[in-house]
Amino acid sequence: MYRVKKLVIILFPLLLCGCSHDMNRREIDEINFIHVMGIDYSEGEYTLTAIYSSSQGADPEKGSAGVEEITEGKGATPFEAFQNLKLKNKKTVSIANTGYFLLGERAAEKGINMCVDFLSRDETVKMESLLFVTKGTDAAAFISESIEMGQSVHEDLEAVEQKQQELVTRNDNTLVNILNELENDMTSGIIPYLVAEENSFLLPGYAVFDKLILTDYLDMDTSSGINFIKNIIRAYPIYLDGNVALSISYSKSHMKSKFNNNQVKVLIYLDFETMVKEINSDKDMFSAEALKNITEMQNDYIIKVMQKATNYSINTGRDILQIARLMQNQHNRSWSDIEEDWTSMVSKIEYEFEVKSQITKSFFLGYGR
Prior knowledge:
Blueprint: H1 2-20, E1 31-33, E2 36-42, E3 45-53, E4 68-75, H2 78-88, E5 92-94, E6 100-104, H3 105-110, H4 112-120, E7 130-134, H5 139-148, H6 153-167, H7 175-182, E8 189-197, E9 200-210, E10 213-217, H8 220-229, E11 236-240, E12 244-260, E13 263-279, H9 288-316, H10 323-330, H11 332-338, H12 342-345, E14 350-361
Parallel strand pairs: 1-5, 2-6, 6-7, 7-8, 13-14
Antiparallel strand pairs: 2-3, 3-4, 8-9, 9-10, 11-12, 12-13
Helix pairs in contact: 4-7, 8-9, 10-11
């Protein structure tokens, strides 16, 4: 028995060493963890622009106070460009902790499929990484100009993500969500786009992809209309006539579809609650009648916001609201009969809205009282 125990004690450390053996193993200080990667396309080749910190720190995912450094790689495909980028770097390069991918406008116009396919096939990539389009410019120019202005691109993108989470309940521009949306070629994909302004990044709305190609940019109201319909609104300001401002504190929506005589009708139901944020009036805005009028006005206000999204879909024939998925789920038997004609049916969809709301907090403060 003693000999058996002795043998186990000797073999156990050896087994542990054998299990930990990894030909690709590297120490942290031997790896440049890319925090942000830009993807561009021009003159028949792709360019990848990678940002990493010169001082990785203890948490490579969050970066550190070190100076942001840039390296580039070029190739006929994104994967080839990534291999070129690796060869140019003194250390091993990894996208295992890359939190943000920026898609340049020309790469988006070329088609998102090549870029997303390359990323999805990397076994180390984080599927919750966020993807943005850089409106009106290449990702490389967006990155370099921001650094020249003294910005920390990685930290400013973190700030954008935090602002995004303040407005919506979830980020749908994760890599995994975008892959799921692009699987259905009956619908149009949407990805948030960035613009640089006064030493910060703004997120004005969605970029629209039709057949995987960038086709348009939506303004903030139209994009917010989509968010209401998708049931992801966390907060939204409402500005009414009479110097009344409110803020949505709760929102819940869902859709139902009807299909009769080859006509699709979509019913959009929305319940929301608001808080009064500002009243600059000498009128009594807190009487029962006044609050009822404000409630009706805020309902009309939000309906108009949602109509911007539905009208865009009708006018362009682009299914930005994923109605094809709704029809597949709710009318599975009928879908096979209309699938081939769906593109021409999108512009003929009828939309109806049923909106209910209430003002949950209305403090009795106002001008002249």
